[in-house]
Amino acid sequence: MAGATSERSEGLVLGRLFGVPVVLARSWFVIAVVITLLFQSSVAYAAPGLGVVASYAVSFAYAVLLGVSVLVHELAHALVARSVGLPATRVVLTLWGGHTQFEQDMPSPWRSFAVAVVGPLANGLLAVLAYLPLQSQALPPLASLLLTATVLTNAFVAVFNVLPGLPLDGGRLLEAVVWRATGDRDRGTVAAGWTGRVLAVAVPVVALGWPLLHGGRPDLITVVWAGAVGAVLWTGAGAALAGPAVRRRLPRARARDLAHPAVAVPAAASLADALAASAAAPGARVVLTAPDGRPEGLLDPAAAAQVPPERRTAVPATAAARALLPGTALPEHLVGPDLIRAMSGQSSEEWVLVDPAGRVVGLLLARDVTAAVLGPRAARR
């Protein structure tokens, strides 16, 4: 069979910390390069005898140090979530920082508040720990520069993250507070989402307006950076505002209702037999099964059509099939959060539904689930 069907992975899997997979997204290397280029002049000034190559190496080390700070922030979320019964599925480090994914949504406002608040607290603690050695008079200039930058960066991240707008941690805090006060999570999400959009506009406006108010000129890099941050905040707030609609649709996402017809054929069968089974069940996809009944491949109609009719009895069905990824057979009864949780374990477009006896009953497409939960427009993206 041809290669298994799969979407592109999120990035480089670094390993596991406290049982949580840590993924380095490809976009992280973009921000690492930007930080290295911008920080190199400061390194060269602090240590003029270091040399060009070494100064860039130190600058890159600072970018890595910031990545570690983000990792500590996200692990704080993950560990507290696990302590309140919400295990994290992965931590991903990205261009704009990082995010932690969980097995399920936050079930209560106090859990949501606890998980959100520890991220900024972790950055605040890192800022304090980096500040303490700066009290020493014997620090070399380069060490002093790195520690000072670490203090300022972590302090900024801690303060910025508690601003009360989604998708920031402060938005989660505001959402939890309104949720607790009103008993309605959707009200909290809407309040924090719209506050997030206000922040998205405010960030570039302040970047432009602050220097002008003080008789200066806005720095181009600062303005571009603020505009990019504002765009990310606007997008994240918009996604958060869609959350209430998603939560209403989610219980209606039933695997069996969304499935396409499918017929099981032994993988040892000929291509002619597989096509005959397909013809006997118009519109059904052919799932190839192992001797124990386990789904292991999907017949590719385009590949099958390339085989001359007179050869199909001699050609195995597996020659015109795609392998299924491990773990893509799902119980047909899955609904809503249970369905999403089961599908999050593997990155695939095609999932085979089986009944309690292990028999194939349908083929579920990820895009159909996406349309059911997020709406048809999301599935077309």
Protein described:
The protein is an alpha/beta fold and 381 residues long. The chain has 2 domains: 1-162, no CATH class; 252-380, CBS-domain (Roll). Helix content is 55%, strand content 15%. The protein has 14 helices and 11 strands. Strands 1-2-3-4 form a 4-stranded mixed sheet. It has a 4-stranded mixed sheet with strand order 5-6-7-8. Strand 6 (285-289) and strand 7 form a beta hairpin.
- Which percent band covers the strand fraction? 15-25%
Quick check: average pLDDT? 90
Residue windows where pLDDT falls under 50 for at least 5 positions = 1-8
Number of strands: 11
Kindly give the count of domains.
Answer: 2
What's the end-to-end separation, in Å?
29 Å
Helix content: 40-55%
Shape: elongated
Count of helices? 14
Largest sheet: 4 strands, mixed
Q: Describe the strand arrangement of the main beta sheet, using strand numbers.
A: 1-2-3-4
* Helix and strand run: EEHHEEHHHHHHHEHEEHEEHEEHH
Structural class: alpha/beta
Rg from alpha-carbon coordinates: 26 Å
